[in-house]
Amino acid sequence: MNQVIYNFAVWLDGFEWSTAMHESYYMYNWVESTHVLTLMVSLGVLFLIDLRMLGIAFPNVPSTQIARRLNLPMWIGFGVAITTGLLLFYAIPVRNSQSLWFRVKLVLLVCAGINAYLLHKRMNESGSSWENDAVAPKQIRTSAAVSLGLWTTIVICGRFIAYDWFDCELGQSAFISFVAGCVDGQTQF
Amino acid sequence: MPTSILGPYTRTIIAAALVVVTIVFCLTIRIPVHTSIEPLFDWMTASWFGYIGTTWGAAFAVVEAFHLVGLAFIGGTVVASDGRLLGLILTDQPPRAIIDKTYRIFNWALILTLSTGIFMACGVAGKIYFLKVFWYKMLTLCAGMLFEYGIRRPLLEKELEDINPWVLKLTAVASVMVWFTVAALGRWIGYSG
Question: Which sequence spans correspond to the domains of chain A?
Fold first, then answer.
């Protein structure tokens, strides 16, 4: 599996645009800045929704309305974040695909997606009987707290990608090498 | 009482005057003052925060991440409250219900961002002192805080119906611009030097 991912990353790395973007000071930095700045929209709005469910923010505004009305800016933010995230991966595919933190981040993103699905499912199933309550039912509060924790950890992992603690060329243990996706005899990038 | 002299716009006028003074200060006597505060940056580097920041990369990275979380909260409150003022989101809710409730979250987010920012600044004090973009960020941050606490909040404390809708919209646009500029300049510090 790691070999397949590595081959795919090397294939991406062969594109002229990938190298151009990586080597362009302004282009790469603008894309990365946009990726980070969209946190302020997508994650900021998501945090507000989570805080509403926990009864900390907007207790006098119906919770389902907060969730529905803030969905649009949140998804616009996530759309930009995903697009710029893909571009960042495309610019440095081999290193990113072999970053332990990038892999943990992807797993956590999947977990956050499942948690968001469960949160919406529980909201829809529970109807609107509690929407004017300051605090949401326990199951929804749990999902909101998990969401806050997951996304904070995702931000930490995203930040850690920039550091080279577990880079393959630094000679890692067998376990770290496997989890990070290091391949024997790989070309240095 | 200054209020009786300057009328209901006392805080706005004081805040605007402070912005003008800051700009004049930065454009005129910046260099001698800049040189005189270098020891402060040396002290920051030698402090415990500076020591941890320069020797323990993981601690620095975690604090950086929480700095971003603080920024995300600031962004969320700005999007919700200024988006409501602009009539873009939560339009079925009274603006007062949204704006007032974002104040406390914004305050805590700003405290988180400032405290983590001070830690990070200590870790790279020797570098940022020489970066123009760092000083631009500080200038924008000061302008942002003056705008938020000196202009925006006093304005929004009044009955919103009594305020010209265009003033409300321009205030919202200015708020979005200033905070996203602060964040963008902060990100650019990482690419400089």
Answer: 2-180
- Token duo for residue B59: 């601690």
Neighbouring CB atoms inside 10 A of A129's CB total 8
Could B72 and A159 be called an inter-chain contact, meaning their C-beta atoms sit closer than 8 Å?
no
Q: Quote the Cα angle for A64-B68-B72, to 5°.
A: 25
Of A33, A72, A155, the CB nearest to B187: A33
Q: Which of B58, B97, B188 sits opposite A60 (nearest CB)?
A: B97
Query: If you measure CA to CA, which chain B residue comes closest to A164?
Result: B57
Q: What share of chain B is helix, strand, coil (3-state, %, to 5)?
A: 85, 0, 15
Is residue A155 less than 8 Å (CB to CB) from chain B?
yes
Residues sharing a CB contact under 8 Å with residue A134, sequence separation 6 or more, in sequence order: A55, A59, A60
- Contact of A134 with A33, CB cutoff 8 Å: no
Instruction: Read off the pLDDT of residues A85-132 as tens digits, 9 standing for 90 and up.
Output: 999 999 999 888 889 999 999 999 999 999 999 988 888 887 767 777
